[in-house]
Amino acid sequence: MSELSLCSTVSAVKDQVSCDLAGEAVILSLKNGVYYTLNPMGARIWSLVQAPVPASTVRDTILAEYDVDAGRCESELLSLLKDLHREGLIEVENPKV
Q1: What is the residue-averaged pLDDT of the chain?
Q2: What is the pLDDT of residue 1?
Q3: Is 60 in a helix, a strand, or coil?
Q4: Model pTM?
Q5: Number of domains in the chain
Q6: Does 29 fall in a domain?
Q7: Is residue 30 part of a domain?
Q8: Does residue 58 belong to any structural domain of this protein?
Q9: Which parts of 1-97 fold into alpha helices (H)?
């Protein structure tokens, strides 16, 4: 698994379908047939990663839209992105060094 940081570019994989359900996101992995749900903030993050985007841009957007501490936002964002990556729902690309 690729190391994930704020410098990483993240994007939803193609092998999934998702929809909004009363402000939450419901995602079906076509690869493993498992459904996932995300709370409203997770759903907002999911909407932001539909096209390749730097994780730092996602963080900045969430900080601008929600009243959340920057450190907590960064920590919880990276935790969610790692979970989504581990479940095969997002791709991670890191800058070439």
Answers
A1: 95
A2: 53
A3: helix
A4: 0.92
A5: 1
A6: no
A7: no
A8: yes
A9: 40-48, 55-65, 70-86
Q: Residue 71: what residue type?
A: G
Range of the structural domain that residue 57 is part of: 9-13+41-93
Closest CA to 25 of 1, 49, 2: 49
What is the model's pLDDT at position 39?
96
Q: What is the dihedral of CA 40, 42, 45, 50, to 10 degrees?
A: -100
Phi, psi of 92 (to 5 degrees): -125, 130
β-pairing, 53-54 vs 90-93, is unpaired
- Per the CB < 8 A criterion, the answer to whether 20 and 46 are in contact is no
Q: How many CB atoms lie within 10 A of CB 94?
A: 12
Number of C-beta neighbours around residue 79 at 10 A:
11
> Is 10 in a helix, a strand, or coil?
strand
